[in-house]
Design brief:
Number of helices: 2
Largest sheet: none
Helix content: over 70%
Oligomer: single chain
Number of domains: 1
Distance between the termini: 53 Å
């Protein structure tokens, strides 16, 4: 016995409604999954920014501590040089002391600037490492999607 017109229509409508409901359900699940994935990536990005700022802060603290230590040593060296200059017995001795102090001060300054440059370089590297890792992960994700 063949299906009647109304029964065929009802079956078609039911199939259409079931297919529509399934498509809607699948779409919602995919959207929720994508939002969850975006949330995970956003959290990791925020963690990378916090780690980056922490590294930058530590680098700035280290550089500040080095600068303070250098300033203190430099002040002590200046005071010692002034005492030795005032104790000099001749102009020749003053010139020799002044020359020796100037040479030592320049060498000390160059050494300190080298140390500061190394500290800044290490700080910049540590600061950008977490962000670089996130960019690398993003690029790998994009390339995997191709």
């Amino acid at each position: 016995m063949a299906a009647t017109g109304p029964e065929t229509l009802k079956t078609t409508v039911d199939q259409f409604a079931a297919a529509g409901n399934q498509a809607f359900k699948d779409s919602v699940e995919k959207s929720l999954s994508a939002f969850g994935e975006i949330n995970v990536h956003s959290k990791k990005n925020l963690e990378a920014v916090v780690a980056s700022m922490t590294a930058a802060t530590k680098g700035a603290e280290a550089l500040g501590a080095q600068a303070m230590a250098f300033s203190k040593r430099n002040l002590e060296d200046h005071a010692a040089a002034a005492r030795s200059l005032t104790a000099a017995k001749s102009v020749q001795e003053v010139v020799e002391l002044q020359t020796a102090w100037a040479k030592g001060a320049m060498e000390s300054y160059i050494a300190e600037m080298t140390r500061a440059s190394e500290t800044v370089a290490a700080s910049v590297k540590a600061t950008f490492q977490p962000i670089n890792e996130r960019v690398t992960a993003f690029v790998e994700r994009i390339q995997a999607g191709r």
